[in-house]
Amino acid sequence: MALSLEDRIAQSRGEAPAETVLRGGTVFDVITGDLIPGDVAISGEQIIGIAADYDGQQIIDVSGRIIVPGFIDTHLHIESSLVTPFEFDRCVTPRGVTTAICDPHEIANVIGVPGIQYFLDAAMRTVMDIRVQLSSCVPSTNMETAGAEIDAEALSSLANHLKVIGLAEFMNFPGVIHRDPDCMAKLHAFQGHHIDGHAPLLSGKDLNAYITAGIRTEHEATTADEALEKLRKGLRILIREGSVSKDLEALIPILTERNSAYLAFCTDDRNPLDIAEYGHLDYMIRTAIAHGASPLATYRAASLSAAEAFGLRDRGHIAPGKRADIVVLESLENCRAEMVFAAGVRVTDAAFAARQTVPIVGRNSVKAPPLNAESFRTTSNREETDVIGILPGKIITEHLHAKISVEDGDKKPDPNQDLIKIAVIERHGKNGNIATGFVKGFGLKSGAIASTVCHDHHNIAVVGADYADMAKAANRLSEIEGGFVVVQHGKVLAELALPVAGLMSEQSFETVETQLRHLRTAAISIGVELEEPFLQLAFLALPVIPNLKITDRGLVDVNKFEIIA
Description:
Layout: H1 5-12, E1 18-23, E2 26-28, E3 35-37, E4 39-43, E5 46-52, E6 56-61, E7 66-69, E8 71-76, H2 85-92, E9 97-102, H3 105-111, H4 113-123, E10 129-134, H5 152-156, E11 164-170, H6 173-177, H7 181-189, E12 194-197, H8 204-212, E13 217-218, H9 224-232, E14 236-240, H10 248-251, E15 263-266, H11 272-277, H12 281-290, H13 295-302, H14 304-309, E16 326-329, E17 337-342, E18 345-346, H15 349-353, E19 384-390, E20 397-403, E21 406-407, E22 410-411, E23 419-425, E24 434-440, E25 448-451, E26 460-464, H16 467-479, E27 483-488, E28 491-497, H17 509-525, H18 533-539, E29 548-551, E30 554-557, E31 562-563
Parallel strand pairs: 1-6, 2-7, 8-9, 9-10, 10-11, 11-12, 12-13, 13-14, 14-15, 19-24
Antiparallel strand pairs: 1-4, 2-3, 4-5, 7-16, 16-17, 17-18, 19-20, 21-22, 23-24, 23-26, 25-26, 25-27, 27-28, 29-30, 30-31
Helix pairs in contact: 3-4, 12-13
């Protein structure tokens, strides 16, 4: 039973014992940077006292430890963790992440509103507080075939849900600045709500126009200069470190105590293998401090600034009246959570076991046409070829050009020059489109890799040096309801089934991590040089990130925002 306000005040004054008391630790204040000795008293979901001696029904000794607010991931796609929201909860909450602000637009692009509803239902039951931004771009553009479309009316019907904050990343920035009617309808519907931004490399008057539309936050800044322009124009910058998009090191120069009130952290897309090997927001905090950022700026960005950026004024600070989202650390520098509380609940296996779950959605979503080696021919009589150039650690690509000889009316992959074939196959059962092109940067020497995680339309993406292996890999995805596959010489070397909308596993995050290790080993065995080839492949199909991308409708010149004829 929730305590009355009167009872909380009485406990705060020490007239009655608190529910739980953390004794012997030191609070790190993310406003002043001071280290404050004294107990932390908790009742129900709230902190009711600090910097004093308290009695409690439960006393927990945290002597010699530092107490900081729970961390807030301000923008992520839980689907990119490749597990359900419940397994994501179990994976990262013990690392100190007590709030996650997610955009379920991956599953929304496959099955529409039911995918968002699944996340809303799950968010009501997780130990961490999952908040949902409503997916604004389903599909992200008119240059791809997605599994669903969501209009302003459908989004508005969900706007008042307890877990909804506002409108998720508005990726179609050309649609905003050129006032596309569908974009305008969504922006009008959410004026006064929080609207996330997504505007890579946008600058000058176009950036002014984009912000004027009501955009408040931005996670696509990849250089300090880009971030500073956006900060000066009123955007709060969400510093990102995902499995592919790694912007933290480039943006550490702006992570100062002066700026940190307007900065936050996000992971965007991070898989269980990276979480296991490196960490989540805890990794970002450790890394930022190791690279010279002050603990005050870093922990403030990870908690209080993040909370205030999204209007979550009940958290982000170890202070009376705030939500009891608490992380107990050995030191600020190593940021390794020894104990975590989420809304006053100690994060334990028992807390996860006590959750109710919700039924899985999005099964049997892969409806691609059967493929053979001939499906991947690039019919042409011109040697001049547009080539997607990968930039490791970034989702921005280069628009390269190469001369590829035409043999029997086809341009074949050339692993010796690292020019391999890429194809996107429509898999939602709508038109069976197949588009092919070339990509440089994988290092692949033989075989193929394929995926149904293919932002944001989530069609099948496959790269390969051999057409028969490409067909084998793509067809295998249909058989396992989506996922990742590595093939060489007609044999499946490794795979991970993702039957929940072709995006998520029903298995534990530990199982997914193990299978990802096998996939990475298999990818290396066929020559792949990228640290994270599967998500890197996924972003080659996202036509709102410069410079050259590919969808099921063809190569996309993102700067011109048009399909190359």
